[in-house]
Amino acid sequence: xxxxxxxxxxxxxxxxxxxxxxxxxxxxxxxxxxxxxxxxxxxxxxxxxxxxxxxxxxxxxxxxxxxxxxxxxxxxxxxxxxxxxxxxxxxxxxxxxxxxxxxxxxxxxxxxxxxxxxxxx
Length: 121
Description:
Elements: E1 2-7, E2 10-13, E3 18-26, E4 34-39, E5 45-51, E6 58-60, E7 68-73, E8 78-83, E9 92-98, E10 110-111, E11 115-120
Parallel strand pairs: 2-11
Antiparallel strand pairs: 1-3, 3-8, 4-5, 4-9, 5-6, 7-8, 9-10, 9-11
């Protein structure tokens, strides 16, 4: 069992940066793969990025490649999502989830409560 708590969201302008954090407690976090998803109002939850627990392999949605970077600090039980060059279309609630690297939300067993990111034009 693992508990996930996201933080770092906020209101920014287009072109700005934000770093989201996903703090974990419970079982050994270093053995979990973690994904980030986002959900805009009235839309489905979409995959953003993921990082594996073996080798730290990363994957990204095409819409964020080159702008977002996922990383993890196992000593701090935290996964980060660095978001640069933010666009209004990045506006959504961002969720972290474990334990998969799949782009499909139903492959994940554990979810945080989400953090709101709003990007103004």
